[in-house]
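Data card: per-record layout.
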Amino acid sequence: MTTIFMTGFMGTGKTTIGQLLADQLQMPVIDTDVYIEQQEGITIAEIFEQKGEAYFRELETAVLEKLSTNEQKVVTTGGGIIMKEKNRQLMKQCGTVVFLETDLAVIFERLRGDTSRPLIQNQERSRIEELYESRLPLYREAADVIIHTTNQTAEQVAQEVMQRLNLKRNGETNTV
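The structure for this 176-residue chain is written out next.
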């Protein structure tokens, strides 16, 4: 097993669960959004505002290409990374893709008041629902494993990911 890619819509817990997994497996964790912010020296919201979404999506692809190594790691992705076919292919070729599926009502509750996500700023609920519905088939297409997270804690989800991938603590693996 090389890389575990955590995918899902914004607010599904990718970052939190990815960190829990990395801690339990004693593997490094890389958040693609944080990585991009560090490389660019500005926030994701500022990238969207100053350079546009298309530029940001190219940065995501560049990050995935850079992370496409045989090193064991957990990569937590931005919610829109699956929109590009190339990104879906890179993740599938370089590791195991885990889709964290969460009911939209729970996502709305988690994101209420979150000002760090440019695609939901000043958006009608219906627009966010459309975005979610448009991405859902892509998440499912890319996924090797789908975990329904709606009624689970982050710890329970991390445990389920480990069980479904047949992983043990401390980086010891069986088969994937």
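Known properties of this structure: Residues 96 and 143 are 8 Å apart (CA to CA). DSSP finds eight helices and five strands in the chain.

See the next section for split statistics.
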